[in-house]
Each structure stands twice: as C-alpha cells, then as structure tokens.
Amino acid sequence: MKAVTWCGKKTVKVENVPDPTILNPRDAIIKITSTCICGSDLHLYDGYIPTMQRGDILGHEFMGEVIEVGKGVASDKLRVGDRVVVPFTIACGNCFFCKQQLWSSCDNSNPNAWIAEKAFGFTPSGLFGYSHMTGGYAGGQAEFARVPYADVGPLKVPEGMTDDQVIFLSDIFPTGYMAAEMCDIKSGDTIAIWGCGPVGQFAIRSAFLLGASQVVAIDSVPERMELAAKAGATIIDMRDEWIYDRLLDLTGGRGPDACIEAVGNESHGGTLDAYYDMAALATFQVTDKAHALRQCINCCRKGGTVSIVGVYGGIVDKIPMGAAMNKGLTFRMGQTHMMRYMKPLLEHIQAGRIDPSEIISHRLLLEEAPHAYEIFKHKRDGCVKVVLKPN
After folding, report:
1. pTM over 0.90
2. Architecture of 173-333 per CATH?
3. What's the alpha-carbon Rg for the chain, to the nearest Å?
4. In the CATH scheme, what is the code of domain 2-171+336-389?
C-alpha cells in the first residue's frame, strides 16, 4: 500500500509499504477513505517530538470502511462493511483509567510505556502515528490501517453522512470541545483563545455552544482570522496589537474568564520572551517554546482557568508561576479523552448546530502529501486544513 512516511526533519515521502494485518484478536483493518494533516503532525515534521524513526507512517486523523475484524471483536461492536471514524487515542476499555473515561490515559495501549515513563513519570495511551514513545503505531495517512482495540474506539457513521462532515471527530472537533469544556463556561463569560488553527476553530465554536457570551480569538494568519470572525469571534491580530491591553478593554478591565492555549510547543511571537525561547531551543536548554502559554497566564483574570490543548512534548522555561499562583488560576490540560466526546458531538453535527466541513481549505490526493505538508506548515495558498484522499 501507499503511505506517508517520516524520513527525517522536514522530510516526508509517499512510499510503498507492507499492508497491515490482524495481529491481535481485537484488531480491525480499515480501508481509509479520508485522512488529514494535523497541526501536531507538524511537531513531528519539524523534529520536536523524539523517538521518531525513518519510515514511520504518519497520521492520526482518519476514517474509512472496515474490511477485516479479529476474532475477539463482537459483531454488535464492529462488522465488515461498517463506515467508521477512528479516534487518535488508542484505549483498551478495561483499565482503571478507561473505566473513569480518562481514555487518553489508558494503561494498556502503549507497548513502549517505559519510554514515556522515563520522560513523563507515567505513560499516556498509545497514539496513532505519533512516535515510538506513544507506541510506535502506524498512522492513518495511508491506504489501510490496523486499529487495535477496535471494539472500543471506532465510531460508526450513520447512513447519509459524508466523510467531510465527520472526519474531524477523529481528533480536532473533540479536542476543541474539550478545551472549551475545561473552561467551565458560564453565561456571560469571555473566553480568549490563542491559535485559530483547526483546533482553535473548533474551540471557538464549542465555546459558543457551551454558552460563552464573547469569544476572543488571537492569531496572525488572515484565512484563520476570517474563519474565526465568521464563527462570531472578536479578533485580535497578534502582529500589531497589544494583546493584554486589548483583552482588558474587551472585558471591562477584568480579563478573560478563561484562556485556551491551542498553539503548543512551536508558539512564537515578537516579544523578548519569544526570542529567548528561540535562543534556548537552539542551545538545547529547552525542548518546547511557551510564548502563547505565558500570555494565557498573564492575561487570564484572577480566579480564572487556563485550558491547554496545544501539544507539549518536553521542557519549557520562564513560566510565570508567580502570576498563576497569586491570581489563583486553575490549569486544566491533556490529550483528548476521545470516546467521551465522539458520539455527543456527532449529534451536534446531525442537528445542524455545527458544520465541521467549513474549515476544510484543501482536498488533495495522498500522493500529494509532501506538498500538503509544505503549504500547511507555511500557511501558503490559504491553507487552513488539508484532507487527503487515498484514491
């Protein structure tokens, strides 16, 4: 089959690789009909996430048709011919964390748990196409994929729904929704969101769904800001406005009730701390840049919440803990507990409350993946979100 493989920093290729096979009784094989490039894939592309190996198959946002199931998958769970969306997190369904619906903390789905334990103290769940630290699983930017614990994760797609309507249930819609949910939104709240990429777009829409009165979106890419404004957000262009002062103006001097960090470890800016990050990264003093996170902490109102869904992989520096402690901030963060959100969000789509397809800017063939990574990385050609089709 053809698959998008990681071949070193800033290099991906479409190569012929062996077809996946059933390895365990609870596996299924999916013929992929749609797959996507995620902003967190760029962290792999740019070399920020360790334990990648040449030839690793990328991609964790995908869906398709079930063509084979293992003997341990009950027919009432999954059958050949089912159309499914596959969550990016892999969960066993039986461990302590799965039973608490903390699916992204599954204890049993990462066969390389020892690597993550060295880095984080404990392991997260396994993830598709996201380094050997999170399991070394082949990803979904391919023609076919093996899905472990297939009786737990995949969501069946109702008849009549298109791939474009549901593909983002694989990651970015639930991630944006969880980011907003962690803000504990109340009527009258103002939510500020750093990053208007795909996850930020869904965080904006989810914040309104959950009752926010005002959403402020902070970015610098015109196409992203246009989409955010279309969704009802007030826009701050990070290139030419004083973000802190503008947020005070918009909130009567109080500050946002919650701040969502939807950028992650490649955040950048034009202030002194951002230049410090670049120097510290170049001299191996840190692994991640935290400019957006610092702004969230400084701008959030007293007693407010900082919700972090941007991906961090290692060590950051110069976090203003004095501000966080003295303002009494609450921090909430994590990989998305996918299976908690997929079905309820499907119902929002079916009811017409949200149209996920509106953020798609490019539909390309799988063979065009290297070009797709380039335009997505550099925000060229109006690129906001790429959906790849295997054929």
Report:
1. yes
2. 3-Layer(aba) Sandwich (3.40)
3. 20
4. 3.90.180.10
Cβ(89)–Cβ(97) below 8 Å: no
Mean pLDDT, each 10-residue run in order, the chain (391 residues): 97 98 98 97 92 97 98 95 98 98 98 95 97 97 98 97 98 98 97 97 98 97 97 93 94 98 86 79 83 96 98 90 98 97 98 97 98 96 97 82
CA atoms within 13 A on the CB side of 77: 16
Listed as own residue / partner, the contacts of 245-251 with beta carbons closer than 8 Å and 24 or more positions apart are 247/192, 247/216, 247/299, 250/190, 250/214, 250/216, 251/190, 251/301
For the chain, give the mean pLDDT: 96
Q: How far is CA 148 from CA 87, 137, 200, 350, in A?
A: 11, 9, 29, 28
- The answer to whether 2-171+336-389 and 173-333 have equal CATH topology is no
Contact in structure between 223 and 248 (CB atoms under 8 Å): no
E strands, the chain, in order = 2-6, 12-16, 28-37, 56-57, 62-69, 83-86, 89-90, 126-127, 144-147, 155-156, 190-194, 214-219, 234-237, 258-261, 305-308, 330-333, 362-365, 386-389
**DSSP code for 170:** G
Tracing tokens 């599954």 back to the chain, one arrives at 106
By the 8 A CB rule, do 139 and 168 touch?
no
User: Which sequence spans correspond to the domains of the chain?
Assistant: 2-171+336-389, 173-333
Give the pair of three-digit tokens for residue 11.
């290099």
Q: Are 90 and 106 in contact (CB under 8 A)?
A: yes
Strand, coil or helix: what is 209? helix
Taking a C-beta distance cutoff of 8 angstroms, is the pair 191, 231 a contact? Answer: no
pLDDT score at 268 = 81
**Residue-level pLDDT at 236:** 97
Q: Give the Cα separation of 4 and 376 in Å (integer).
A: 15
> Angle formed by the axes of helices 172-181 and 198-209, to 10°?
50
Sequential DSSP letters for 253-285: TS--SEEEE-S-TB---SSHHHHHHHHHHHTTS
| Closest to 171 measured CA to CA, from 115, 227, 104, 261 | 104
